Amino acid sequence: MTSQICYIWKKHTIQLIVIFSILQGFSGCVNTTIQKQEIGGILYDHIDPGRRFMEASRPKQNWKAPNPYEAEAKAGMIAYITSDAGDYKPYRIPKPEEHTSKLTVFIAKGETKARWIGVYGLADLHALSAKVDLKNAPLSVDVRHIHFWPQRTSWKSRKWYMTGELLLPCANGTKMVPVQYGVLEQKSFDVKQNKTAAFWFTLSTDENATPGTYDCTVTITSEDKPSLLLPLQIDVLPFRLEKPKDKQWMLYEDSARWNTMSDAQIIAELEDFKKHGITGFITMPLGDPDLSQLKTTGKVSFNAEAFKQLAKLCNEAGIPGPHVCICVNLPERVRDALGLKNNLKEGKWPQAVIDGVTEVARAAVEATKDTPVRWYYYGVDEPRVDNTYAIQEYQAWHNGGAQTYTSFGDPKFLEKAAEYLTAPCFNTYLIGSQAGTKLALQSCTNTGAEFWWYGIGSYVNPHPQECSTFYNRYGAGCLLWKTGAKSVVAWTFCRVHEDPFNDFDGLQDNSIEPKDQVTAYPEFLKPNDWYTYQGAIPTLAWEGIREGVNDYRYLATLSSLIAQAQESKQISTTDAASRVQVTLNTLIDSIPWINPMEQSNFKTNQLQELQRAVADQIMLLLGVLNDEALMERN
Known about the structure:
The structure is a single chain. The chain has 16 helices and 28 strands. The chain is α/β, with parallel strands linked by helices. The protein has 4 domains: about 1-55, no CATH class; about 70-240, Immunoglobulin-like (Sandwich), CATH 2.60.40.10; about 250-550, TIM Barrel; about 555-634. The strands form 7 sheets. Strands 3, 4, 6, 8, 9, 10, 11 and 12 form an 8-stranded mixed β-sheet that branches. An 8-stranded parallel barrel has the order 15-16-19-20-21-22-23-24, surrounded by 5 helices. α1 (about 1-10) runs antiparallel to α2 (about 15-20) and α15 (about 570-590) runs antiparallel to α16 (about 605-634). The N and C termini lie far apart (about 90 Å).
């Protein structure tokens, strides 16, 4: 069929167009001529060759919009709050139970937290704007809009869906929107009748904020219509959240981008990582071995300045590590330095290669011994049990004194290589259940390994994590708590293909996964120019990680208070601690085991309800401990 169509292309262009309209599902030379297509209302001037991109089925909306309040009718809009900010779509109809006339927020001292609100146009709205009047509340607020755009439904899909993802600035009736290659532009914030727009508020308090309830106001306006005023009640809680020192939130940071960025740009990005709870990185450059003397003397030296410099910048930004490091194609470089020709992908390596890799590991450990940041060596990604290359490389680095890391989804690989792995990192399909976590914990206990797992970030296996805050929030928070793991790993921060604002052009860069692999997007002053990088554009998925870290910190704060109360000599205090522990266990048990790579019916508002319940228990126990302290003083 393909050869016949190619023949028609050469002979009869008009006939080709007719046949193409009938045979859209066929790939081949017909569709390689497609360079432009309008997708989701956006005209892309370059897309991957292949059959036409088609919209996936939209979720059914079998409900009617609620009747507007009097103030809404005058303002020409209905205000509504969804469970997750990702529930908003440009075509979204508000459900009656989502209809709202006010907003409420609770926030701990020093915490950053998000709220969102959508508006449904009862008429065409022009120059839409939202403001938050904090009055005397001890907070700051950043107001953004949730930008809707089309995205592929999976790594190589020719289907797309419309999703809110980017969180972009908006003010005074205008909004920033993506244009091309990381560049934004300002345009009027207009919403058609029966369509939805959504706002995102990032609220922050400092460590010394005065606790109390503050009455604030959200004002949403559009041109030539009365403003819609919504009361915003903010409860600043009288405690700070603990930062667990024994837990790690790791990120594939895509550090190759830093090669064209200044130290100031890198530090600014690192500070953003810290604000989102990230404590360490995966795929940090370790350095470069000098193999010139390996063949003659067996000696190796190692230049670890690349790692040392980045580790220093991380420390300055408040990211303590540890980090996971790479040294690309090291076994092959050792083989070549020895003058050998063996295929290292198959069978047992020559002893000289094993010894050479081990010597490199020793040299790397020696070169970094005075660096106050731990690191792990990362050799092969997701190896299977038959991967003799991975097993031998990890054995050599282990024997050279290095700590080691790998991600994997084949449990049989762990059985074979466990003694060489410091930090085996389990795929969420292995730990996304209580039984799976139990097996993973047992495997790590048997070998003394650290229990890590991965499965948050920008995956679409099979459900896109970009579409909401839930998947990353649940994984970085409740699932990390339920598994008891030492680390959770997010993949990947910013791995774009060609135009970062075009999800349909990545085939040339990555034929296996042409969809952009992005948790947060780059903003440039000049197209695709990292020298003009302005920082990461936040997304629902990126903010979801921060929200999940906060969920964990609420749980950790309560757990710490329980332990403190259990040490009391007052029976009333220890009894209170026991009751609160039972409540905490019940709350945790009410959260189901979910693989964050898969779609779930569990809702984000249920995570928020858990956080509120935990905050209430913190307040209760703080009251008991304060009463005890007062009694002792008297």
